[in-house]
Amino acid sequence: MKLLVDIVGRKLFALAVIIGVGLWFLVVPEFTGTLGANPVEKLLHQSGEIAIWTLGAVLTLSPLRVLFPGSRIVNALNRHRRTIGVSACVYGLMHFGFHLLYEGDAQAIARSFSKPFIWVGLAGLSILVALALTSNNFSIRKLGGRNWKRFHRLAYLAAALLIYHQAIAGKGHWQIARWLLVALASLQIARITKTLLMKLRRASRTMSIFGAATSPP
Amino acid sequence: MTVETETPQVNCIHRRWDLPDSAVTPEAYYLRRREFLRVFGLGLAASAVLPLTSRGASTGFPDSLNPNYKLDGVKLTPEELVTSYNNFYEWGLAKDEPKNRANRGWKTVTWTIEVGGLCANPVRIEVNELIKTIGGIERRNYRHRCVEAWSMVIPWDGFPLAKLVDLAQQKPEARFVKFTSFFDPANCPGQRSNEFPWPYTEGLTIEEARNELAFIATGLYGKPLRNQNGAPIRLVVPWKYGFKSAKSLVKIEFVAEQPKTLWNEMAPNEYGFYANVNPNVDHPRWSQKSERIIGAGFFSGKQPTLMFNGYEKQVAHLYAGMDLRKNF
Questions:
Q1: Domain extents for chain A?
Q2: Which residues on neighbouring strands pair with residue B142, listed in sequence order?
Q3: Which of A105, A109, A171, A175 to mutate to test the interface with B (most CBs of B within 10 A)?
Q4: Do A41 and B292 touch (CB under 8 A)?
Q5: Class for domain B21-319, per CATH?
């Protein structure tokens, strides 16, 4: 267990997993001939899915830390928030690049920008870019911890937009988006419930100590 | 500039599936390989029934290209791609899934189809018998345009739908034809999901069904339809988006009212009943002005989409005076 925590906590481990996923789904198929009949479409879809799952993964980390504060594996994983978050943005940018490639020419690209489906994806991606650009110690110092944290809550808005983008990408079905939404929403609900309960408990303890003094005369 | 030949022309680069002719098993042997094994293993008793039961629909029927549907100057999509890139949600949402999943023991040989509803001559008939009754098959090269903005050119084998309509003798009150695909959730993973109102249904107006282009396919590239392509019998309506061409049919009915169709029911704002290929009416999420040509390489391979998929001459009159923006 200690060894596992040790490995999981290493930066090399995080990078290997994140880059490995990209290599496996976006590069290896070129060499094994499994890109299929519509190669750019396949790369477009795979990169989008990697991006949204990576974003989903990073958003599980802070609720998990609140829910399991003693878990060393959760704490080890939490060290990689920045790496995972920035990779979600990088895969998102690749997805956008494949979209441009898929549309092929300037006219077709311009036509694609007339669709709300594309706006939603672009809005989500723009947020990810802004968050990735400020994912460094300099920005945290410059903005101040509290403001930086508030700003980075936009990740939830990005997730909502991108899950919606994913959901309407399917022809009337939304299987991937559904599982992501259920997982992320239930973790958030659990986290909020736990935080509230802890606040209540603290408040009631404070009340019982100072109860007499705070009651009206 | 007639470039069309009986074999697909794959341009320039060498592809993995390219084989010298010398390496190809003669098709007659290939098609008979199982027969040989079974006859060998099971003895004479089995051999007596094999010719009837082990072959797909359209096997053994003489078949030649109808010169009216040659598509001069257009390249056929390689067979390997036509049989590996399929939207067949009964077998999974990804396009490479049907090829794998539909070939794990799903039986499409000895398949009965029902032709009924408002007609004088309803029948339930085995597919090979139906082909015999209709009078054999022919080959036609048709463009195939998917609503997802990609396209192929496919050499289908089969017969005109009009012949089947004539055979059934529809009653005057029949105004539509409804097509129903198989329903077999025990074998078919996609149909175990309740996300879609299975079985797959589609529909045409009687006039559309009688149009010379409307086709019932039982094969492609001169071989029985592969399971992933909708074996053993399917609809092909080349001037409409691909989803109108329902696969693996079990029922064709003449009806008075416009039938419910699966995609129209799922997302009426995205998939209309008519679903005619039309570069001027966008899908809500993408433009329909151009299409990616399957098999034309990694970076190139887009072409403008044509009105009615290039079949304006044959079908435009069916929609004279109709607002195609409203009736998309």
A1: 2-206
A2: B154
A3: A171
A4: yes
A5: alpha beta
